[in-house]
Amino acid sequence: MIFFVNFIRLNLNIPPMKNLFYFLIISFYGLTSYSQDVAENIPNDSLISIKEPYHFDQNYLADDDLPWHARRFKVNAGAFFPLNNTDIRVGTNNGNAGTDIDLEDDLGFNKSSTSFMGTFEWRISRRSRLGTEYFVLNRTATKTLQKEITFKDETYNIDTRITSFFDVQIARIYYGYAFLSKPKYEAGLLIGAHVLFADIGLRVEANQASLERRETFNFTAPLPDIGVWGEFVLGKRFGLSVNANYFAAKIDNISGRIVSYNLSLLYNVYQNFSLTAGYTGLNFRVDDREENLNGYLKWGYNGPSITATYSFGNHVKLYKH
Q: Could you give the CA distance from residue 74 to residue 119 in angstroms, rounded to a whole number?
């Protein structure tokens, strides 16, 4: 399923796009609920007894072998430390093309930042999983301009002191299917969407409120993606996971591209509780030309993360054959 919505409408609030995101979540859960596997019963005589607490030479992993692995539910929450690179241009179709603005260099935003991220995953069956991710980052900056900037209908001259903000939330939903599902490793395909809620603005404050100038715009951008993922058991307390996603499309006057990836190493502290250290990146660009406005937004963030992981629910059986 490929979809791409006319998602960037400058200087307008667009509640229907948020409604679309909620619709996507409900649709994904609805479409996958009927595919839940019937519980796979294993005859008692097919079980292989083991003497050691950790041993893979069996049809499936016993529940006590890896209490953190292959549980029905998994919750992740922690801190993310991205390095940002953000470019934007907002112009009009009456001959005002707008200025290419580097938020870090031209407006004084710090490249490094700290953010919250969280994930939730439900293993529907041995091969199917459904998950959500959430990321939030609010940034502000104040700088005296060193070059003239045109943003929408306003022009800000050199030596003008500008206060600006860039607030963004990213929610992701995905469905994964494991073509390989073994006790030591799993790998498969992903299909889902990143949904970006962004609000960007510039403000010049004078001594009198009547002289204040302010320009803002916000948008909601659903960015569908497809990708691959893999999970590997490295030892009794260690696990490795990786995923990569990509999508690019052009429909009418809108084009967009997204690339995301994640690599993380898990260490099981005790029973169902683990710590995860990872490296995450997302890079996207969207271009849009409307009746009165045109522009683009390009944003990339890449950096390390550290999260706490809690797994619960019954074990999903992973068979050797």
A: 8
